[in-house]
User: Which sequence fits this backbone?
């Protein structure tokens, strides 16, 4: 199991629900959550065989910024 953490520019809860639905449509076994209270608007994704680039591409295609945190 791999956990990746990303910085985003997502601001609203409604946006998070949409983004999570889009990612789960492609990767149904991932566990995904946002922390909008954090200054970096954190996105956490947990899953087997997780490729950070795939998550970043999906978020970017939806019009949001997404950067992997080290």
Assistant:
């Amino acid at each position: 199991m791999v956990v990746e953490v990303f910085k985003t520019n997502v601001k609203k809860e409604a946006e998070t629900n949409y983004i999570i639905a889009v990612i789960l449509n492609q990767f149904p076994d991932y566990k995904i959550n946002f922390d909008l209270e954090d200054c970096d608007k954190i996105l956490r994704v947990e899953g087997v065989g997780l490729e950070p680039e795939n998550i970043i591409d999906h978020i970017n295609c939806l019009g949001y910024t997404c950067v992997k945190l080290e």
Q: What stands out?
A: DSSP finds two helices and four strands in the chain. The longest strand covers residues 2-8. The helical segments are 13-26, 52-61.
